[in-house]
Each structure stands twice: as C-alpha cells, then as structure tokens.
Specification:
It comes from Rhizobium lusitanum. The protein is globular. A hairpin with a 2-residue loop joins strand 1 and strand 2. The chain is built from 28 helices and two strands. With 669 residues, the protein is an all-alpha fold. The protein folds into two domains: 324 residues, Orthogonal Bundle (ABC transporter involved in vitamin B12 uptake, BtuC); 218 residues, ABC transporter involved in vitamin B12 uptake, BtuC.
Length: 669
C-alpha cells in the first residue's frame, strides 16, 4: 500500500513542540553515556586511557577498546539506519518502508548460513564480506523484478517481501538441520553493538560519511521533483528510474554494511523518520538529517540504558532491546497519524471461470485424493510402499494427524490471506502482517519456561492468550483510526516485531527446551496427535462456516471507503470483525504448523489466477488450494530426504516462492 511518506500528525502539544522528544532522547543518550563511562573509569583518566595509558590497567584497556568503540558504533549505526529509513520512505513513498524492506537482512543471513556450512574456517572479516555480498545480491534480485516498471514503489516492496520470505526459508532449513554449528547466526540476527577494538568502527566511518554526503547534497533535489508524481517528473526531464536507483543504491549499501557488522537492528529505520516528521521536519533534506540524528540518539540511548540497567556480563542484544523500546513509540505515533482513504483493490485482469462451482468441487475432490495418498503412500520401515497401514497399522496413527493438521492449517491461512488481501486492498497482504502468529508463538514458547510438560489444552490456551495479547493493542490503537488498512498494517508489524524480538531473546538463551521448538517454529507438523488434529479440523470447519454471512463485506470493502459508506456499510464494525476472524484463523493454524504463513500469501494468488472472482467462492477455492499446498508440502517434506524431514511450512515457501517470483516477473512485462 503506497502512502505519502510525509504523513501528517494531528495537531497536539507534542506536534506543536515536537522537537522536545528528540531533545529529550538526545539528552538521555548523553547523560546515560557519561554516567556509564564515569562508572567504568574516572573522568581524570579518560584522556590518558584514550591516548596512551597504562597497558597493564584493565579498566583503561576496556575503556579504550570496548566502551568508546561501542559508543561510536551506536552513533554510526543509528545515524545510518535512521537516515536510510527516511531516504527509503521518501523514495518509495511509503511510511512502512525501512532499510530491511528490500530483503537486506534476509540476504545477509543466508550468506552467513552458507559460509558457516561450507567455509566454517573463514575469519570474521571474510564473513562480514559474505554478509555484504548476500545482502547486495538479494537487493539486486528485487531491483530486477521491478526494473521494467520503472522501479515502482509497490513492486519494490512486494519483491522485497518475497525475497525475504524465500531467503528466510532456506536459512531456516539450514539452521534446523545444523543447530549447533549455526547457533551464532541467532546471536548475529539479534543485533549486537559489542566491540573489541576500533576496526569495525574505522571500516564503517568513511563509507557512512561518504554515502551520507551523497544522500543530503545530491539526491534531495531530484526527490523533490519526484513528489510531483512519475508523469510530472518525466515532464520536467527527470529520469525516474535513475533517481530511484541512485537513492536505493545509497540506502542498500549503507544498510548492508551496518547489518554485516552489527547484525539486524529493528525499528530504528521506522521510528527515527517518524520522530523527525513529528518534530515538524518535512523538507526532504531536513527529514534525512533529522532522522539520522534521531536514529543515533535512539540507538545510543537504548544501548547505554542496557549497560546501565543490566548487571555486568549480561548479554541482552541491543537489536532486541531496540525493538522493545521502539514498539511503544511507534504505537503512540500511529494513534496520532491521519489516515488516508483506503484505496481500491486493483489486480491484473485474469480469465473468469464459466463454471466456478464445478471447479471448486474438483478442487475439493483433489484435496480428498491427495490426503488419501499422503496417508497411505510414503517411506515406511521397508522403503516406499502403498497401503502400508495394512501391515503396519501404527503408520496411520502417525501420518493421519499430521496430514489433517496440514490440511486445516493450509485452508485457514489461505482464507486469512484472502480476508487481509481484500480488507487492505493490497494483493500482497498476508496473515502475518497482523502479528497474530508471533503472539501465538510467544505464548507457547513462554509456556515451556513455566510448565515442564504442558498438555494440548494448556498449549492451546497459551497460544490463544498470545494471540489475544496481539489483538488487544490492535483493537485499542486501531479503533481511533476506524481500523483503517494502513493503521492495521503498521500496528500489526509493530506489535508482531516486538513479540518476535522477545521470542528471539528466548531462542538465543541457550535453553535446551528451545531446541525442541525449533522444528515447530519452522512450520512442522511433527508431534501432532489425533486429539490435536481433530480440534484443528473442527475449528477449521467452524471458522469457514462463518464466511457466507460476511460475503457482502468482502465484496464491498475492496471498492474503497467512499463506496463502502455509500452502500451503508459500518466501516469500523465490519473491518474489526474481519480482522478478528483472520486473527482467529491465523492463530489456530499457528498451533498446527507454527508461525510460518507463506501459504497465506500464495493460495489467494493461485485462486485469483485460476479465475475465481466472486469473494465467497474465491475464499473457498483458496482454502482448497491452501490445503492442497500444505498437504503436498507436508508429504514431500517427510519423504524427499528421508529419514530427515523438511518442515511443511518451509517446503511450501521453497516450492511456492518461484511461482510468485514468476508471477511478479510476468506482471513486470
């Protein structure tokens, strides 16, 4: 969804004196830094420690080679991410854009995973280079998918989402099969500013200064012309593609460098530009400069507060802490933002089925046939076999629950994807943008730390509480915005990222209980019981049965806010009920296959391309397609590399990713 990056804020005392939060944040960062440095070494010894000092004094060595470089890295990384966030939002005209939008962290992580598996003896510097190459390669693929559309903002954001999902799937499989060898990837992904010398600071500093000068001296003038729109800019002789390419190149190179050195640090690229706009800085150059200042202050304050509040030696990554602190800031800003009228859902013309009900019946029949094959055919104790249950009855007891759980999860995620797609008027909306799957995951993960061996009922309750913890802030913060699509996306991403950060903290804790959850977090049906599968099937049927009364809403809402009001639709009520239904479907599916919801992005596209246009039939067709995809993915994942397994959610992402990439490439022509 494309919106102006200079989204306005309702006039309040905070907006009128909006510079106050920035000043307060900067003062907090400076005061906390001075206190921490004074606590580590008396002020009288600072100069001596920095320039010479006693080589036998451990406190001076720590001050010189750890604390001061960490201070400098926080300023450099924060300024880079904040400035890049503003430049990205201005270029793509979307306040959701941030330095991670184009798949930079996902590409860097995949490259690090490959190095860890194939070249484990590489020195640390080489791995940082590999991360930079991986980040750049992912971005180049995104640019290639958008090249023929003049690097349109919508195409870039969509391509970045797909590449992030695809790279993340391959990384997750490698991490699942090589947990001990790749444990360091989790720590890198959490983001850490800990330094042992000045090497990384000196590596980043000239690049950041050089790219920053380009960003504030050359690019702003062209971006100002670009605010007239693509056609207006072309009329003035501006090359729209070249301007966007130059701006994105600066952003990607700077972000890739920072990410390769300190890992993934969330929210700075989103929150810093929002703070800059809140302070009244709406010019392009001013937004970039003030966003860089806000990013530096935010990251420095977060890191220094960590050192102040945590005991010595505590290893809470700064990236996770930034997400925890940044989420409330963004939620407050979202409540103050004015929302634009929801756009209409526009999609490429596709053929319309002459007999959609017959096609739907054939899809349902295909689901039944594939389910039977998945249960009866596969690797058994004596190799490949069909109807092995006649000889080994216990196979049905193992295969049937997993197959039924995959079926239910695929159907629920597909319909949730249809609802989000039509509700947000965004063809690439998917269930995870609500953040409900992250909440359910955190609820179940937290349960394992509280209860040694929880039963199925307790797990379902924990997952439901986690999902509710997401829905409460969505309802609270979204009510003021009439549950508008853009505010829902922002709130969902914000709260979901916060919960994901907390879950990541538990994952890197080293607790052996987390290893048992890794497969489930990757989208596996392993360990599914008959009772749990029966509950999921019953829930799936009950939730799908609620669709007919809501068919009118699904038809009218994509036509836009004005048309919806004209036909007497209660926008707040209809949007909230649809969001609640999508959240229930997503959280239920999460209990089956974990938080990986790629099928919720894939199945709606396949249903639309197949020719199902009427919303109700399209929803049920997507449910059948989602069930087909997940049952097939679960069956193949269990058999392709037998006796090892690939989780169904990951396998669906790997197989379905090329289809969506091909679809994007076809639309680009």
């Amino acid at each position: 969804m494309t919106m102006p990056a200079t989204q306005s804020i309702r006039p309040t005392w905070l907006a009128r004196g909006g510079i106050i939060p920035l000043i307060a944040l900067a003062l907090l960062a400076v005061v906390a830094s001075l206190y921490n440095l004074e606590r580590a070494l008396p002020l009288a010894q600072w100069w001596q420690a920095m320039f010479g000092g006693d080589p036998d004094d451990i406190r001076q060595l720590v001050f010189r080679y750890s604390l001061i470089p960490r201070f400098a890295m926080a300023v450099i990384a924060g300024a880079s991410l904040g400035g890049c966030g503003a430049l990205m939002q201005l270029t793509l005209r979307n306040p959701l854009a941030e330095p991670t939008t184009l798949g930079v962290p996902a590409g860097a992580q995949l490259a690090l995973v490959a190095c860890g598996l194939w070249f484990p003896a590489l020195p640390a510097a080489s791995r940082e280079i590999a991360a930079l190459i991986g980040a750049s390669a992912a971005t180049l693929v995104v640019l290639a998918l958008s090249w023929d559309r003049v690097l349109s903002p919508a195409r870039l954001i969509s391509g970045g989402l797909l590449i992030s999902l695809y790279c993340g799937s391959f990384s997750a499989i490698a991490l699942l099969l090589n947990q001990e060898a790749l444990q360091g990837i989790y720590i890198w992904g959490a983001g850490s500013l800990v330094q042992n010398d000045w090497n990384k600071v000196l590596l980043l500093l000239p690049w950041v200064v050089g790219l920053g000068l380009v960003a504030v001296t050359i690019i702003p003038r062209s971006l100002t012309v670009l605010t007239l729109g693509d056609e207006g800019a072309r009329g003035l002789g501006l090359s729209v593609r070249n301007v966007r390419l130059a701006a994105l190149a600066v952003t990607v190179v700077a972000t890739a460098l920072v990410t390769s050195v300190v890992g993934v640090i969330a929210f700075v690229g989103l929150a810093a530009p929002a703070l800059a706009r809140l302070s009244g800085r709406h010019g392009i150059r001013d937004q970039i400069l003030w966003s860089a200042a806000a990013g530096a202050a935010m990251l420095l304050a977060t890191d220094q507060l960590l050192q102040l509040l945590l005991p010595p030696g505590a290893g809470l990554p700064t990236g996770i802490a930034t997400a925890v602190i940044g989420a409330p800031i963004l939620l407050v800003l979202i409540r103050r933002m004015k929302t634009s009228e929801a756009p209409r859902l526009t999609e490429a013309a596709v053929r319309r089925l002459r007999h959609p009900r017959v096609a739907l019946f054939l899809l349902v029949l295909s689901v039944a046939v594939l389910t039977l094959l998945a249960v009866e055919c596969g690797h058994g104790p004596q190799g490949w076999s069909f109807s092995a249950a006649s000889v080994f009855p216990q196979l049905d007891a193992l295969r049937m629950p997993r197959t039924m759980a995959a079926l239910a999860a695929g159907a629920l995620l597909a319909v949730a994807g249809i609802i989000m797609k039509r509700l947000t008027a965004n063809p690439l909306a998917s269930p995870e943008i609500l953040g409900v799957s992250s909440g359910s995951s955190l609820g179940i993960i937290s349960l394992l730390f509280l209860v040694p061996a929880p039963d199925i009922g307790t797990q379902l309750g924990a997952g439901a509480i986690g999902a509710l913890a997401i829905l409460v802030p969505i309802a609270f913060f979204g009510h003021r915005q009439s549950f508008s699509p853009e505010s829902m996306i922002l709130i969902g991403i914000t709260v979901g990222t916060l919960f994901s950060a907390i879950a990541a903290l538990l994952m890197i804790s080293g607790d052996p209980r987390m290893s048992a959850l890794l497969a489930w977090l990757s989208g596996s049906t392993y360990g599914m019981t008959q009772a749990r599968a029966s509950f999921l099937i019953a829930s799936c049927l009950a939730l799908l049965a609620t669709l007919p009364p809501l068919a009118r809403w699904l038809t009218v809402l994509p036509l836009g806010t004005g048309m919806s009001r004209a036909v007497g639709l209660h926008l707040s009520l209809s949007r909230f009920i649809l969001i609640l239904l999508a959240a229930l479907m997503t959280s239920t599916a999460t209990l089956a296959v974990g938080p990986l919801t790629f099928v919720g992005l894939l199945a709606p596209h396949m249903a639309t391309r197949a020719g199902f246009q009427q919303p109700l039939l399209q929803s049920y067709a997507a449910a059948a397609i989602g069930a087909l995809v997940m049952v097939a993915a679960d069956w193949l994942g269990r058999n392709v590399i037998f006796p090892y397994e690939i989780p169904a959610g990951l396998f669906a992402a790997i197989v379905g990713g090329p289809y969506l990439l091909k679809l994007m490439a076809a639309r680009a022509r």
